[in-house]
Backbone:
């Protein structure tokens, strides 16, 4: 086969020019390109004599897919024999990847890119042809980014069911949104081992540590990060309060009579909504002649005094969280008021939440004073969950760490896509 068409097929499949395409075969689920090498160098590697063709060998390997179809090349290689020293050898094969004799170099690169785009080994296998194990081989050979300490370090727990246990932890560069590392668990020993790999200068360069309200990370920061201000992620603070309220609702729901039970369950999201947001929604509902949601909330709160009390505390917390205070003192006083009211409201779930906020009060105030949102927290968690679902879980911790670092450990690519070249 000759001509421009052949060259473009070579280009698409990543076949160098000195291979000749003999024919292309369509096998239904894959295309096979039969190629042979134009004779080039036949110098004997031992004595430098000129080899004679002694026979042929045929091998197949997957290459970059053409037209969305798995594509393989079937290569016909000459075997040479030296008449002087009797040595035989196969002609060179530049296509083959050093990683596997069943994949071309281009395909290995392509699989690497797909793995970084969070595609599962299974989907890569289906689209490109090589087995799942071969895709995993590429994964094992890829270089993952080295952990570093960013100026703003965000750490959080990670639910992961691997050989290392059910929960791990991860660290994120809070300013760039890049995953820094994944840890086996959040035990003090593990955190110590992780921090100990960095130099004193690196540890001193961390200005801020954002974490949840439990003490593992906070204590580690006290031991290792001399200059860091500890902030509790605002997301975790709000979740602590909403979770407490939800526990109250669930308890009352269990105790309620049949008619109220279903309503209480259905109103879960309504309760957790901020009041101004509920009013916004209602304005639209009234316009279109529907019953306002506030009426439903009012009715349900009427069924239990305890629920009404808990709801009042929740909304009071939202008000505190959304208020722009003139100074830190006022903010601290308002939070103190909320905590004491919540602790004395007679509902144990709410009181406990207030207790944990009180314990971490200084770090909570740090987070709200700077006004920096940590939208990344929720975002990372969701992305990682998505990825775990796509991979149908990870059995092996090291595998999970590699995959997550490859997917999230590099700065995100531009959201605008790639611009087409301008020919005008
Ligand atoms: Zn020779």
Residues:
């Amino acid at each position: 086969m000759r001509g421009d068409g052949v060259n473009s097929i070579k280009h698409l499949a990543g076949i160098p020019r000195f291979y000749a395409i003999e024919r292309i075969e369509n096998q239904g689920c894959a295309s096979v390109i039969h190629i042979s090498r134009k004779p080039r160098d036949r110098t004997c590697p031992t004595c430098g004599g000129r080899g004679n063709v002694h026979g042929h060998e045929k091998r197949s390997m997957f290459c970059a897919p053409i037209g969305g179809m798995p594509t393989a090349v079937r290569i016909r290689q000459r075997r040479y024999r030296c008449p002087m020293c009797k040595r035989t050898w196969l002609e060179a094969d530049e296509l083959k990847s050093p990683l596997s004799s069943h994949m071309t170099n281009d395909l290995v690169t392509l699989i690497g890119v797909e793995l970084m785009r969070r595609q599962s080994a299974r989907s890569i296998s289906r689209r490109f042809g090589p087995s799942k194990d071969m895709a995993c081989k590429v994964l094992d050979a890829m270089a993952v980014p080295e952990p570093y300490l960013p100026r703003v370090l965000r750490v959080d727990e990670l639910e992961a069911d691997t050989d290392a246990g059910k929960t791990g932890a991860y660290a994120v560069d809070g300013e760039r949104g890049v995953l820094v590392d994944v840890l086996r668990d959040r035990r003090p020993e593990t955190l110590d081992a992780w921090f100990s790999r960095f130099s004193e200068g690196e540890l001193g360069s961390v200005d801020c540590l954002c974490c949840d309200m439990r003490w593992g990370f906070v204590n580690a920061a006290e031991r290792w990060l001399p200059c860091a201000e500890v902030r509790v992620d605002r997301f975790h603070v709000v979740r602590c309060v909403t979770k407490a309220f939800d526990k109250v609702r669930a308890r009352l729901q269990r105790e309620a009579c049949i008619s109220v039970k279903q309503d209480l369950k259905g109103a879960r999201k309504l309760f957790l909504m901020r009041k101004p947001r509920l009013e916004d929604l209602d304005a639209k509902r009234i316009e279109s002649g529907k019953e306002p949601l506030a009426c439903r909330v009012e009715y349900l709160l009427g069924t239990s005094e305890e629920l009404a009390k808990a709801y009042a505390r929740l909304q009071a917390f939202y008000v505190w969280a959304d208020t722009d205070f003139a100074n830190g003192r006022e903010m601290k006083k308002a939070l103190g008021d909320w905590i004491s009211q919540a602790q004395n409201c007679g509902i144990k779930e709410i009181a406990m939440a207030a207790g944990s906020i009180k314990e971490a009060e200084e770090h909570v105030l740090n987070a709200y004073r700077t006004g920096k949102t940590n939208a990344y927290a929720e975002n990372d968690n969701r992305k990682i969950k998505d990825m775990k679902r796509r991979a149908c879980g990870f059995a092996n911790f090291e595998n999970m760490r590699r995959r997550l670092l490859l997917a999230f450990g590099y700065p995100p690519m531009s959201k605008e896509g790639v611009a087409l070249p301008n020919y005008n």
